[in-house]
Amino acid sequence: MNSPGPAQATALLDQLDGVIDSFEALQRYLDDVVHVVAAEVPGCDAVGITLVADGKATTAAYTSAVTLDIDAMQYALEEGPCLEAHETKQVVRAELDEAYDRWPRFTDAAQEEKTRALIAYPLLAGGTSVGALNLYARSASALAGTDDVVMLAAGAHVGRVVAAGLKVIEARELAGQLEQALASRAVIEQAKGVLMGRHGFTEVEAFDLIKKQSQRTNIKLRLVARSIVDDATGSQLPSAGQAVD
Fold it and tell me: What is the DSSP string of 74-113?
């Protein structure tokens, strides 16, 4: 997003409007946010949202699972750009090849990752941060032109929507639900990997197969995915057009 005009900035904020009255509505809203931002910011390869509830940081939404390892490193080590943006309520820009002095343990752990640049914007509501909006890029210079003024406004907009929703959802309950949602996503990613690796499905085909099986059997998506992962060494799985037995 290089020097957008007022109309472009307003259009972005309009796309980030939402009303949250349940955990499910919160999850849908955050999923929409990361995909809208990814589409609007040039050079951005992935977008994620860190929420901090009951003192615990969790990746609540993301456009690419490849960023989950980087987020997990930050949470485990208690250092890194996403956490710093939340704690300081400031924009944090990081080129990971040059960030050792700032976050030595995180930078060491992140060396194997393909992400080379990261910008984190605090999700502010009334002077309080509820997390961070995180942009990731594989090129160190890809996010250099990102407009911090617009993205700070976007982060504040999302922060206000989320904060209003948190008044409806108990913070302690939210922390547990976010953890459960992340675990469900992880097993779905594993199941997709099984189908892609064994049968050459695309990511979309693999997810579509899991979803159709869930709908056909009226079994939750995560349970279908868990069955595929558990049976990965068992009988041959069907083609993309067939049901999972």
Answer: HHHHT-SHHHHHHHHTS-EEEEGGG-TTTSHHHHHHHTTS
d(CA 169, CA 20): 9
Per-domain residue ranges of the chain: 6-169, 170-245
Contacts of residue 76, defined as CB under 8 A and 6 or more positions apart, other chains included, come to none
Q: What SS3 state is found at 51?
A: strand
H/E segment holding residue 214:
helix 203-217
What predicted TM-score, i.e. pTM, was given to this entire model? 0.68
Rg (CA), the chain: 19
Distance (Å, rounded) from C-alpha 145 to C-alpha 52?
Answer: 28
* Fold type of domain 170-245: Arc Repressor Mutant, subunit A (1.10.10)
What pLDDT digit, counting tens, does each position of 162-194 carry? 998 877 776 656 677 777 777 788 888 888 888
Domains 6-169 and 170-245 share a fold: no
75 Cβ contact partners less than 8 Å away, ≥ 6 residues apart: 57, 58, 83
CATH of span 6-169: 3.30.450.40
